[in-house]
Amino acid sequence: MDNQKIILFFALSFVLLLIWQAWQEDYGPDSPATTVQTTPSPTADIPATPAAPAASAAAPEAGVPAAPTAPARGFQRGARVRVVTDLLDVELDTTGGDLRTVALLAYPVSTEKKDEPFRLMQDEGARIFIAQSGLISQQSAPDHYAVYTAESNDYRLLGDELRVPLRWSGADGITVTKTYVFHRDSYQIGIEYRIENASGAPWTGYQYRQFQRSLPGDDEKSAFLYTYTGGVIHSQQEKYEKIKFEDMDKENLDRTITGGWEAMIQHYFIGAWLPDPQETNQFYSKAPKGQPYVLGLLSQPMTVAPGETGEFKSRLYVGPKDQARMEKAAEGLRLTVDYGVLTILAQPLFWLMKYIHGVVGNWGWSIILLTLMVKLVFYKLSETSYRSMANMRVLQPKLVQLRERYGDDRQRMSQAMMELYKKEKINPLGGCLPMLVQIPVFIALYWVLLESVELRQAPFVLWIHDLSTKDPYYILPLLMGATMFIQQKLNPPPPDPIQAKVLMALPFIFTLFFAFFPAGLVLYWVANSVLSILQQWNITRRIEKSGKPAKA
Question: Rounded distance, CA 16 to CA 22, Å?
Answer without folding.
Answer: 10
